[in-house]
Amino acid sequence: MKKFVSLLTLIVFLFSCIPLQAAETEDDTYTLTLQDAIAKTLLNSPDLKKADVMVDTVKKNKSDTKDIYDDMKNKSNATGASIHRQLNTVNAILGSLPAEAVAEKASWQVTKQALATSLDSLNNLDESIEEIENVNDQLHDAYDDARVAREDAEKKVSFGVEKLYLSMLNLDDYIKLQEDNISFRYKMLDIEKVKQQNGLSTAVKVEKVAQEVMDEQQVLKNLRSTQSLLTYQMNRNIGRPWDAPLKLAPVGLEGVKTRDLEAGYESALDNALAIEQLKRTIKNKKDDFRKYKGNSTKTDKINIEMKDTELTLDTTEYNIKSTLEDLHNKLNVAQKVLADARSKLGTTEVEYDQTKTLYEQGMALPVHLTGSKLALGKAQLEYTKAKYDYYLAARELELAEKGIFLKKIKG
Prior knowledge:
Blueprint: H1 6-15, E1 30-32, H2 34-44, H3 46-96, H4 102-197, H5 203-238, E2 246-248, H6 261-271, H7 273-291, H8 296-360, H9 366-401
Parallel strand pairs: 1-2
Helix pairs in contact: 1-5, 2-4, 2-5, 3-4, 4-5, 4-9, 6-8, 7-8, 8-9
């Protein structure tokens, strides 16, 4: 029994320095469903709130830049039109002056030159306005990216809630089984004491069984501490007091549709934000290359940057495919574990039925029936956990096929 809870015991040890309490009346206990847990977490998630701030910030910058661009463009157009009208007027005056009006012509020529200089300066300003337009385009892309990143973050948070919820359900089952296990150990201790009284055992053996009971009680204590930690995390997610009592409703997991590797890979490439950003960068570099064609200093630099981005794109695409392969393998392993757990459960059910029949016929002791029932409970628990693990592996693959990865894909 100690073996199947050893991992949870280790986790508890790592967090054992955190004191927790959670004691209330049964009537006050709040029952949470998985759907409510996801919905309320999405409303309270600090990560999503930060993502919302980022989206709003980029949106505001985009709006401000657009206003600046429109204002400067309108003023530039109006000023340019005014200068052209004045130039036309000056040219008309110059054309109407007689040849002998040398001084007056010289004066108007100065005015004409001043207007031409002003027009040149305005043309230089137009280049700056064009740069502002480029910034505005970049902010438009950044706003779209921020919205996509926010949607992706929401899906990641939802998956995290599912994982936490199922872990808590599984832990509840472990605790109930461990409580039954301790009751069984106490019965075994009583039997060992009776055997000692009848000369069929020794004080050393009794002490050994008593120590096993104490060890199992410590395991149960650790499991309950972990339960308190997970309850604290869930309560924090859904906006309740950290030590508020909490019950989880059972879940009915729906099937998750995943694709074969190639189809999933194509879907991931179509939906991954990182791929979209890299392809956009390459397109912009190509536009810049055409724009500055003839300027070797700029085009050489652009060409180097474009090749570097293309290499990053190739690496990112490769890493996405490798990740999908790993997730397919993970799903296949989970499927095998599930099949083995199902088979083991079937065998344990048969063994329990046989033991129960022997007990009813007076050919087996109550302790044998209790032990067989414990084995059945353990097999049922392992089968349930295998179902949860298979579901979560399928969900993670499903997210990856949508271009959403729980771990960052490096380029």
